[in-house]
Amino acid sequence: MRVGILTGGGDCPGLNAVIRAVVLTGSGSGHEFVGFLDGWRGVLDGRSVTLEPSQCEDLLARGGTILGTSRTNPFKEAGGGEGAAKMLDEMEVEAVVAIGGDDTLGVAHRLAEFDVACVGVPKTIDNDLSGTEVTFGFDTAVQIATEAIDRLHTTAESHHRIIVCEVMGRHAGWIATHAGIAGGAAEILVPERPFDVEALCARLERRRERGRLSSIVVVSEGAVPVAGPQAEAAELATASGTVDQFGHARLGGIGAWLAREIEERTGYECRETTLGHTQRGGTPTAFDRVLATRFGVEAAHALDEGTFDIMVALQGGQIVRIPLEVGVGTSKSLDLDLLDRVAGPFLG
Ligand code: F6P
């Protein structure tokens, strides 16, 4: 079979490891591969490169994606779904392995209406896809954030400061909670639970009275204060006004806003660090390389068996295939039990 591979959405450590696994496993079964450039954009424009096994052998540890990526949504363009199907037909591409988050995989599912055969591979550092216990990229992002928090501790301690560390995660607090637990944060603020700045400051004051002169506050980029004047002020300070083709606003800025608020309200010296794209760049951890490889091998087997409109997923520690529709149906919010029962005893 002639198979197209594409990577869509934000890049993520482990994408190249999936490409390697799909191409090396699939070519062993006689499939030929082309890589579409820049996600679904490359399919619409017919831009692709040949992917020979020899080109993919050394990709395991490489961050980013050799194919490039974009947040293009074919269904936002007139006749886009039909156009993508027509292009694939003209290029004699019989199946597509789409590696992406809910947006990219949502497009893969909708293309079934146009008889496009897709196998999905879920990725996101945010870990917010419901069909799989974990996505590759998440472990790397948590590792990077944890290392950063470790470093922030020593400088915060030296200066008796509060440091607010803003992490990614979109509207899910997985990165914040895992990195906050692993890094011994005093506070973890997540989108799933709006926070009260006054109560937060009171906790930081009590902590200082107990002799803890420095604190690390981990805040997820999507965290918001409780409804009311605090939320309105934060919204004014952070709204970017930029929305992508899938309707997602660009997040960020809550950490800087919060650091100013804490300093003003408590009088403690406060700094802010936004980890941003450092969480997505560079080499994947061993865990993510293994998960990406397991996903890629399973995607290649799905091609062999002609099983389409599915995505591979991790469930109960096993790699399974689930309908794409199920995988992209709902997003996976943070398990608040993890925040309350596991992180809780160490906060404050
Ligand atoms: O979904 C992955 C992610 O890194 C989010 O955590 C973040 O909000 C977003 O992508 C950033 O996107 P961009 O790279 O377009 O700024």
What does this 3D model show about the protein?
With 348 residues, this protein is α/β, with parallel strands linked by helices. The chain has two domains: 2-136 and 284-327, Rossmann fold (3-Layer(aba) Sandwich); 140-281, 3-Layer(aba) Sandwich (Rossmann fold), CATH 3.40.50. It is 41% helix and 17% strand. The strands form two sheets. The chain has a seven-stranded mixed β-sheet with strand order 3-2-1-4-5-10-11, sandwiched between helices. Strands 7-8-6-9 form a four-stranded parallel β-sheet, sandwiched between helices. The longest helix is centred in the middle third of the chain and has 22 residues, at 138-159. The protein is elongated and about 70 Å long. 6-O-phosphono-beta-D-fructofuranose binds next to loops.
| Sequence of secondary-structure elements | EHEHEHHEHEHEHEHEHHEHEEHH
Cα-atom Rg, whole angstroms? 22 Å
- Mean of residue pLDDT? 97
Would you tell me which CATH topology of the largest domain applies?
Rossmann fold
Strand and helix map with partners:
Blueprint: E1 2-7, H1 15-28, E2 32-36, H2 40-45, E3 48-51, H3 53-56, H4 80-90, E4 95-100, H5 102-110, E5 118-122, H6 138-159, E6 162-167, H7 174-182, E7 187-189, H8 197-209, E8 215-220, H9 229-238, H10 254-266, E9 270-274, H11 286-305, E10 310-315, E11 318-323, H12 324-327, H13 336-343
Parallel strand pairs: 1-2, 1-4, 4-5, 5-10, 6-8, 6-9, 7-8
Antiparallel strand pairs: 2-3, 10-11
Helix pairs in contact: 1-11, 6-7, 8-10
6-O-phosphono-beta-D-fructofuranose (F6P) is lined by residues 10, 124-126, 168-170, 221, 250-251, 280.
